Amino acid sequence: MFQGAYSSQLLEDAVNQFASLPGIGRRTALRLALHILDEPQENVSRFVDAFRALKSDIHVCGRCFMISDDSSCPICDDRTRDHSTICVVESVRDVLSIENTGQYRGLYHILGGIISPIDGIGPSDLHIRELSERLKDGSVKEVILALSTSMEGETTSYYLCKQIGAFPVTVTTIARGVGFGDDLEYADELTLGKSIVNRHPFNTL
Fold it and tell me: pLDDT tens digit string along 88-124?
């Protein structure tokens, strides 16, 4: 006979899966699991199918590394955007945060992380070479470094500035409306939007 915290092993398994998600405690996980249990089977099937498709059918843009339904994302394909400006960010979440401000109409380049020796992440683990490739044809005039203002983020920005220094581009960084040590995804939209608009040249000194 099942002797766990709940009356059903199936329920506990579901709770454990919800609780494995970031920011979800066990009480919230239990509430979500019971909600799913009360839903009609067709709703649950759509729920499950959506996550299955997300994992199996999602693509990564071959230019900027944004997630997309196709091999090229809608942002890169949008000819109304400023293709002479690239905003370099750490993750997909940062793109979504900046897009929500409505203050930026250029392109993006997702590094896939930041340089962090303590975590075993070096320059070769990031999409830095691909960024350099995008600058070779001379069409890009400005690169905005919109990385977190932590020590690792600053180190990555400095490294990038040195790497792309040979290209005829202006390198800028977001204004300090975003506090030191802050992640972009946690900044409010007004602060982040102003930080993009009021960007300034990146100083390597």
Answer: 999 999 999 999 988 899 999 999 999 999 999 999 9
* Residue 166 falls inside a structural domain: yes
Q: What are phi and psi of 94, to 5 degrees?
A: -70, -40
For the record, the structure tokens of 103 come out as 């203050």
Q: What are phi and psi of 198, to 5 degrees?
A: -95, 30
Kindly calculate the radius of gyration of the chain based on its CA atoms and give it in whole angstroms.
Answer: 21
CATH number at residue 40: 1.10.8.420
Domain-embedded: residue 1: no
- Scan for tokens 């020590």, then name that residue: 151
User: Largest alpha-carbon pair distance within the chain?
Assistant: 71
Q: Name the residue among 61, 138, 52 with its Cα closest to residue 95.
A: 61
